[in-house]
Amino acid sequence: MTLKQDLEVVRRYEQGQIGDYELERDLVHYSKKTSIEFPHHQPTRSGPWSYDKDGIRYGYGYGCRLDSPEAICEAAENKYKVRPVKYWKAQFQMYGIRFHEGDDLRGVAISALDDGLFTSLTDEVKAIERRLAARYQKNKQKFVEELKTYCKEKAAWLKKQKNQTKSDRKGTKAATKSTRQEESGTAGPSGGANGLNGELNSSYIEANAHT
What we know:
211 residues; mainly alpha; 62% helix; 5% strand; elongated
C-alpha cells in the first residue's frame, strides 16, 4: 500500500468507519513488512478495571474481558473446558454475582444462570464502563497522530529499502559484466586470450629476426 492509501485507512478509522481490528489488518497484515513499530491504542485504566477495543475488563491478562451470558453458559456447562479462576471472578464482578473464596466457581455460575442473574451489568459497572470508554475515545486523537507518523515513517523506510535494492542490483550487474569481460579476454593486451596472442606474435617476430 502507498502512503496515500495508508493515510486513507487512518482517515476512515478517525471517522469511525472502521474499527481497531480493520485498522491493524490494513496497515500491518495487508502491507509489506517493515521494522517500524506499529503504535497501539492503549487501554484506559482505573484500578483493576480497564477499557480497550474489546470493551471493559476486570483484572489483567487473557480471560478477564466481559463475556456474554451465552458464552458464560457454555463455559459453565462444559466441564471439559476449564476456565481459569480469574475468568469467573471477572464475570461475577461485572454481573454482580456474589461468591466467596473457596467456592466452586463453575457451580456458582450454573446457579446464577438458573436464577437468571447474568442479564446485565450492575449500575456501578456501567458507570465505570462509560467513564473509561469516554477517556478511551478522548485519547483517540493522540493515537491518530501517532498512526499518521507511523505511516510516513513506514513509507520512508520502504523507499529506502527499494533504493538500496536497486543499488545492489546495479552493483551486481557491473561486477558480473566485469567478470565476463575478463573471462572473454577483453580486459586489455596484457590479459586474457588477446594478451596471450600478443606474446606469441612478439616471440615469432623475434625468432625470425635471428634467422
